[in-house]
Amino acid sequence: MVWNSKTLTSLVEKNFTNEEDLEEFKQQLQSIHRKIEIGRYHASNSLNAFKDFVDEDAETPNLSKAVKLLFGSTGEKRQNFLNARLVAEANTIALAHTLHSMSGIIANVLYSALCLPNSTDKKLIGISKYITDSDLKKSIVELAGSQQFTYLNAFVNNSKHMNLASSSYSVSFENDTFGMKFVSFKYKNRIYKEKWYKDFCTDVNFIYDKNISILCLLNEYLKENE
Q: Is the pTM of this model over 0.70?
């Protein structure tokens, strides 16, 4: 699915009473494009951090290699492993924050494009209340209520305001899997279970696809309601 920001600009520019506000709106759209690029960069760095040590995506996971990497590496190889672990952690955390802020910018774009009242709660679920029944509203509600977005929101807000969820390179013989994972954490009296980085990246893809879908559906919604 491809989103056309120029189409969106042409659909809403008549709503702006001055150039300054329109320019700010255009900068928000440009920020979304930059967030997409930055997110891809962090995702690639995170997923490829251990490629020189063990193939985490192999059809038959090599658990013995992962165990040796975790417990048996020494000297320069050990230091390289620790560096790779830091690269994976730093880029995965940065990816989470990038995607979270992208969703926030999209909420502001929706607010401006739909000419919503000043009293509007500028969160996705708040904005959805002002949208008539449509694919756009359905997509916003699905994203805002998803467990993927709920986890992302809790993870980012917890890391910004409370503490950074610990992560480690782990091996699970029970699930025949290995790699980096976040430990469980508590946010607003709710416990969020541990999550493997690979599962988190799957969540990221879901949220990213939903964000792009919302932007595309916004274009269609505005066309239908011109």
A: yes
